[in-house]
Amino acid sequence: MLSRVAEAVYWMARYIERAENVARFIDVNYNLTLGEGSTLGHQWAPLVYTTGDEGLFEELYGEPSREAVLQFLAYDQRNPNSILSCVANARENARSVRETITAPMWQQINTFYLMVRSAARQGRPLSEPNDFCDAVKLASHTLLGLTYATMSHGEAWHFAKMGRLMERADKTSRIVDVQYYLLLPTAQDIGSTLDVVRWSALLRSASALAMYRRIYGPITPTNVARFLVLDRDFPRAMHFCIVRAQNSLCEITGSAVGTFKYRTEQVMGRLRMELDYTSIEDIIEQGMHEYIDHFQSQLNELGKVIHNDFFLLPTNTTEVAQSPTQSQSQTQVQTQSMS
Question: Could you state, in order of their start, the residue ranges of all structural domains in the chain?
Answer without folding.
Answer: 1-151, 157-312
